[in-house]
Amino acid sequence: MTDSKSFVNTLPYISNPIEEFGSFKFVDWETGIYPKFKGGTKQREIDFFVDIIQKRGLRNILDFGVGGGLELSGIIKTLKKHGYLLESMEANEVDESFINLASKLFKQEQQKVLIHKANWLDLPKAEPSYTHRFDFGFLTGNSLTYIGGGTREYTKKAQQSIVTKFAGLIEKGGYIFIDSRNYDYIKSLMNLPKEEIFENFTFDYSVYYHGFQEKVLVFPAYISDTVVVLHYYDKDYKKWSKLDLYPIYQEDMLEILNKDFEVEDTYHDFTDGYKDKSLFVQYLARKR
Ligand SMILES: C[S@@+](CC[C@H](N)C(=O)[O-])C[C@H]1O[C@@H](n2cnc3c(N)ncnc32)[C@H](O)[C@@H]1O
User: Quick one: pLDDT band at residue 56, thresholds 50, 70, 90?
Assistant: First the structure.
């Protein structure tokens, strides 16, 4: 390991691929990377959600960022297998290609899921409109991180306003489940040379994104208080993409949630309790 005070300049990677993948073609993340990176869902993860829902007797569920729909579809399928009846199953999505992907999956699985098209910024306005509140709203796969701005304080405020909009769709006593990448861990790697970043950014198993490091290499190229740049390399097809996002540090997320919710549990990669090194941090919180 390098001395923690030494400085490694990863700035060139903010806009460029790393040297060994310099010839890769740049593609759109949603269509060029996501499907392969996402892979299938793990039953263990679906069971985790099903357990939360069944134990608390929750009946009205909403996926705030449905993406390709794999989690929501898996949850509905497993609940049905358990003979557990839901009153409503709905989803929110802003991206047309994701709406098409998820609609196709729900149709194929013969699941009646109502998809509302809305940008979170405009909530509760949506097309079609929301007609009731939910007792379980979830946002998985590092999604809130799309919202932010030029300072850590601004990012916190912007993310806070979205979480408060989510809260408006959840009834009192209902739950929100939300996650983000463990940006605190990513930040701890930023003084390392890139070979060591890759070495440290390996995990026993991946959550949500089951193509991670097997099919699509992820390289955390840069992180500061205000911006995080993640590179995605598909070695088979020599494609790459990157996302410039707004980091969510754990301390900030707890503060954000605390305004409308009481945090009941935090998990790292679906395991209860604290860990320094994890891919995702997940929060389960109850509406005040
Ligand atoms: C990283 S994807 C995760 C998708 C899915 N939950 C999963 O785990 O595969 C981020 C999701 O957030 C949604 N999203 C990002 N910004 C949004 C916004 N401003 N309004 C509504 N949805 C948004 C995207 O369309 C996408 O569905």
Answer: very high
Whether 3 is in a domain gets the answer no
- Cβ of 67 closer than 6 Å to ligand 1, yes or no, is yes
Question: Could you tell me the distance, in angstroms and rounded to a whole number, from the CA of residue 91 to the centre of ligand 1?
Answer: 11
Whole-angstrom distance, CA of residue 62 vs CA of residue 169: 9
Q: Which residues form the domain of 283?
A: 43-183+249-287
Q: What is the pLDDT of residues 101-150, one digit of tens each?
A: 999 999 999 999 999 999 999 999 999 999 999 999 999 999 999 999 99
Specify whether 32 is located in the same domain as 54: no
Cβ count within 10 A of residue 46: 20
**Do 234 and 140 belong to one domain?**
no
- Cβ–ligand 1 distance for 211 under 6 Å, the answer no
What pLDDT digit, counting tens, does each position of 155-183 carry? 999 999 999 999 999 999 999 999 999 99
**Judgement on whether residues 61 and 81 belong to the same structural domain of the protein:** yes
Q: Can you tell me which atom of ligand 1 is nearest the CA of 142? A: 1
116 and 204: one domain?
no
Does residue 73's CB lie within 6 angstroms of at least one atom of ligand 1?
no
The pTM of the whole model exceeds 0.90: yes
Find out whether 10 and 224 touch, Cβ atoms under 8 Å.
no
* Whole-number Cα distances in Å, 103 to 28, 29, 117: 21, 20, 12
